[in-house]
Amino acid sequence: MKNKWGLFIILYITAFAVSASQLKFVPLLGNLAASMNISLTQTSLLMSVFTIAGIILAIPGGALLAKLGPKKLLLLLIGSLIIGNFLGAFFYTNYPVFLISRIIEGIAFSMIIMTGIVFLSKWFAGGNVGLAIGAFTTFPATASAVCMNAAVPISTALGISSLWLLVGALSVVCFILVSVFIKEHKAGPAAEAAPEGAATKMIEEKPSIAAAASNGKMWLLAICQGCGAFILFTFITIYPTLFSGLYQLDVSTANFYAGLNGLFGIPFCIITGILIDKTSKPALISFFGFIILVVACAITAILGTPTYILHTLMTAVGAGFVIAAILAAAPSIAKKPILIGYTVAFINLVYYIGVFVGAPATLGAVESSGWQAGANVLTIVAVIGLAVSLIYMLTNRRKPA
After folding, report:
1. Domain boundaries, the chain
2. Which tens digits make up the pLDDT trace of 134-156?
């Protein structure tokens, strides 16, 4: 398939399957906690362990990408998604085995962003890369919107295990589509455009972890991405519980409001990509994103009926600005094209750490001291992200990312 947007659709469906695998049980947290006789914090761990593979494999993922190439690595990720979902379908009532199945599913999540950015940087090297990356980063929002609204009706009609079976079946379809239509590329656009001798040299050059790790700008972006992920995935996880537990909404209404975060996130991630292409100032965009997140986190425990929609809009817009802008900036701050994989891998490492600790830390504070304490945790993280984003902007003033 030569149409780059056609390839994008296949990649997007695959990323959607990965995120749907992560989020499919969030609307069912209460039911799962009751059926397994576990606490709310233990239930949130089912969400967080999904990222353990990301923390462990983020840096080795760069080496795997260099050794296997993006297509083979993507197929490997989809394979883990298939295995994890079918294992979870049969053992979702066995907490220890279920945790293991979640970790296996999470292998796909651990490198899908890195692999996707590498593909998009090649396919859209001639233009619209910001738009493509912005559109690609909507996959968690799309999955959240679908899962929040579809998980309960599907599980009620077909049983809880049906959610795992459906995502497993979609993963099989993705495996076939990637195998047939996406071709392997051994050299990036820069190598293809270079003279033959230079291209050969670039192909033979091997990426260096040390060279990528020595990039100070990369670590600033990584901290910002970790803070953004901490906030976004915490809200994705806790919104149903927040609306039903603190604000006493019924389950259907709580899930409806929770799903709005994903619906709002889809257009604003795309808008972020367009803004990046038009302005070439992803640092400024992420800075404004954190301003929005600081306000949203601070008012989490003092919402009222008229502000539920506004709050889900704010978290979607703020996180969309931050995450999409940072992913768009990441390839451009790599010291060499060959280091893009490792650069994105380091950023993803901190991203996965943010996802991993976010919900348990926040819900732990809630269980210990109430919802205001949870809001305080989120606000502190948002302020840290805002400060680091400002530092990155200042260091990048003369040479925008």
Report:
1. 4-395
2. 888 888 888 888 888 888 899 88
